[in-house]
Amino acid sequence: MKQMGRKHRHYYRIVAIDARQPRDGKVIEELGSYDPSVKNKEERVKLIPSRIKYWQSVGALPSEHVAALLKKFMAREEEREAAANAGAHAGTQAGAGTTPA
Fold first, then answer.
1. Rounded to whole angstroms, how far apart are CA atoms 14 and 46?
2. Angle between helices 64-96 and 49-57 (to 10 degrees)
3. CATH number at residue 80
4. Does residue 97 sit within a domain?
5. CB–CB of 5/34 below 8 Å?
6. How far is 45 from 14, CA to CA, in rounded Å?
7. Confidence of residue 19 (pLDDT cuts 50, 70, 90)
8. Mean of the per-residue pLDDT values of the chain
9. Burial of 84 per CB tally in 10 Å (0-12, 13-18, 19+)
10. Measuring CA to CA, which of 16, 39, 60, 79 is 20 to 30 A from 97?
């Protein structure tokens, strides 16, 4: 988790980063975000499940805090991503049969 924000208003980005880099150092890829100050607990965490799964498949290990967030929110985010992909896919299928004028 890369700490962002300002004093008394922290915000975190969930990132893929080389273990030798400092906490807020150069990242490889951003995988989501966590904003603990958001009132609605369901909206605090945003993840990109497909990229998180990729990084875990090539050996990336989440920190303790990120592992807890993944355990709690990953299923919900996978459902959102699947719904978004299905909606985008349906939109491209509807326009696939038309020819440009």
1. 9
2. 120
3. 3.30.1320.10
4. no
5. no
6. 9
7. confident
8. 87
9. exposed
10. 79
